[in-house]
Write a structure and sequence with these properties.
A hairpin with a 2-residue loop joins strand 4 and strand 5. The chain is globular, with a radius of gyration of 27 Å. It has a five-stranded mixed barrel with strand order 1-2-3-5-4. With 384 residues, the protein is an alpha+beta fold.
Length: 384
């Protein structure tokens, strides 16, 4: 009874400590996000509201099936001060703005008011429901297939998103180094995510250390590549907009590129580190007679099968993001010297290769740490 009571008290104390830390962290985030942002564009009199297309008053469909000019539509407003009213609006013929309106279609409307004049235009289709639907399906599948661990994984993912939005962004907005802010995000999210999945165990400790090491390696190699290839954070495609933000805020624009590499490689590196650590722990539990060297070799063998697939994951992910650039280069038959020396291609190569190197070097480190910690526990037990 005493042992059970002590165990219950210890569990209760542990949960109370975790709850207290979570509360303090949320309080810290609240005060960190008390940011007064300068007005970068004049938004006075402009609002985005929800509406439903009630009728097409004037269509822009041509006889050949193409669309030229604007549609004139009748909208039933679903939000804002004009909710419930039937109002006329225009919908531009564009791929980024406007929408091919049809009766019953839900849209987002840009309402502009200047004095007594009000102008309504269809900004885009209302796809908020699709975002929430697929997010819900994702978490539902994750929880159903993964069970209790799936629920913990979903909690870890939610915590990561929370940290990026409410910790990373306010920090860099207030002038903190994007690179070191990303390092902080990597450390915090790695510890919390792996703690939720495996708790305070040898497996978890090995996975945390391996993940942090792998992400740091990715950042180091990305920085080295950028230095050798003369690529920095000012060579990105949207630099003009970023420079304007940098002039009126404390954001260090030059560090965003490399901090993004750290965050983007976190998931793949964590996957490899956790898989190798989990495999070695399972092997050792089934065969406690395995030596440190055998465990290390087993980790390397397991990791070798993962290196290729996970490296492909990162390379293909970055290649997919730059697919439009590749198509343009191919269609215009640009010379090789122009393509290989362009900033866009260089940045994609830097991201993919540096992340892959981090994955590869994570395997031997996690194998070494796991083998050392697991066999050390055996020696301590034997000495006692």
């Amino acid at each position: 009874m005493n042992a059970i009571g002590f165990s219950d008290k210890r569990l209760l104390f542990k949960r109370a400590a975790v709850a207290l830390l979570a509360l303090l962290f949320l309080i810290f985030l609240y005060f960190l996000n008390q940011v007064k942002k300068p007005e970068l564009v004049n938004t006075y009199g402009r609002t985005f509201e929800k509406a439903t297309v009630a009728e097409i008053l004037q269509d822009n469909l041509q006889e050949d099936g193409s669309r030229v000019g604007n549609q004139v539509v009748l909208l039933k407003m679903r939000s804002g001060q004009l909710k419930g009213q039937l109002l006329e609006a225009t919908s531009a013929n564009g791929y980024l703005f406007g929408a091919n309106c049809k009766p019953g279609m839900r849209v987002i409307v840009l309402s502009s008011v200047s004095g007594d004049t009000q102008v309504l235009s269809v900004y885009t289709a209302d796809r908020e429901w699709a975002v929430y639907l697929f997010a819900a399906v994702f978490f539902l599948v994750l929880c159903l297939v993964g069970g209790k661990r799936g629920i913990k994984s979903a909690a870890g993912l939610g915590f990561t998103i929370l940290c990026i939005i409410y910790l990373y962004l306010p920090m860099i907005y207030k002038g903190a180094s994007p690179f070191w802010s990303a390092i902080l995000i990597v450390i915090i999210t790695t510890i919390v995510t792996i703690y939720l999945i495996s708790g305070v165990t040898v497996k978890g400790i090995c996975a945390v250390l391996g993940t942090i090491f792998g992400v740091l390696v990715s950042g180091i190699f990305a920085t080295l590549f950028g230095w050798l290839a003369n690529i920095n954070g000012y060579n990105v495609s949207n630099i003009e907009s970023l420079l304007f933000i940098g002039q009126v805020t404390d954001v260090q624009i030059g560090g965003l590129l490399f901090s993004g590499i750290l965050i983007s490689s976190l998931g793949a590196v964590m996957d490899v580190a956790m898989s190798v650590a989990s495999t070695l722990c399972e092997l050792y539990e089934n065969n406690p007679q395995m030596t440190r060297l055998k465990l290390f070799r087993s980790g390397i063998n397991v990791g070798r099968d993962m290196m290729g697939t996970m490296s492909n994951t990162l390379i293909l992910a970055f290649a997919g993001n730059s697919l439009s650039v590749l198509v343009l280069n191919y269609a215009y038959a640009l010379p090789y010297a122009q393509i290989v020396n362009s900033y866009a291609i260089g940045i994609e190569i830097m991201q993919g290769v540096s992340g892959s190197i981090g994955i590869i070097l994570t395997v031997p480190l996690v194998s070494m740490i796991s083998a050392a910690l697991l066999t050390a526990r055996k020696k301590e037990a034997a000495s006692v």
